[in-house]
Amino acid sequence: MRPVLIAFVILFTGPAVSAQDLCFQHLTTDDGLSDNAITCVHEDNAGIIWIGTENGLDRYDGTSVQQIAGARMHISAVIQDRQGTLWIATASNGLLRYGPSRDEISAFVHNEKDRTTIITDQLTALYDLNDTTLLIGAREASLIFMDKRTQRFSYWNDSLSLSPAHASAQPLTRKGWCHALIPLDDDRLWIGFLHNYTSLLLDRTT
Questions:
Q1: What is the pLDDT of residues 141-153, one digit of tens each?
Q2: What does the alpha-carbon distance between residue 153 and residue 33 come to, in Å, rounded to a whole number?
Q3: Beta-carbon count within 10 A of 99 CB
Q4: Region of residue 114 (phi > 0: left; psi between -120 and 50: alpha; otherwise: beta)
Q5: The whole model's pTM is what?
Q6: Residue 135 in contact with residue 126, Cβ under 8 Å?
Q7: Residue 157: closest CA among 165, 167, 142
Q8: What is the DSSP letter of 193?
């Protein structure tokens, strides 16, 4: 596999920004990354860069790379919510919650004997919907709501509403596949589905 390099761009202040003002730093496994195959990147409120790879989650503070213990798995998405908690979606190991201040990871995985657990461990995308709700993109179940207070899951029922109040306790179908959750601004969210090449643009103001 050809190494994939992460390039961090620092823009220097000045009257104009030109190509010669850009400074690139390349990070690879030689610098401590878990893997050269990068899947996602997120900058938190403190300016820390969180790097998801096919073999783990890494923390980069601009100087050094730290591999996060307990997250040695294929990472598909990482975000920080409004409360400062990091949420990590994995390709086959469910959802992780990470509190950087306490360096603790909690896992939410599917259990066939417990219908209250998340319906699938194959997750693809994350979006902090509001103070209480995390929106999760997934294979099979498409869109999943997680109540961050109760840690309960509910499921989008193919309506045009992203309100958990309209969700169902169990998915109505297992044929969905949400591929991407991309906020365009504070009000609009683009949702891409892999099956049937469908996408939705949801506007909270309408």
A1: 889 999 999 999 9
A2: 32
A3: 13
A4: beta
A5: 0.84
A6: yes
A7: 167
A8: E
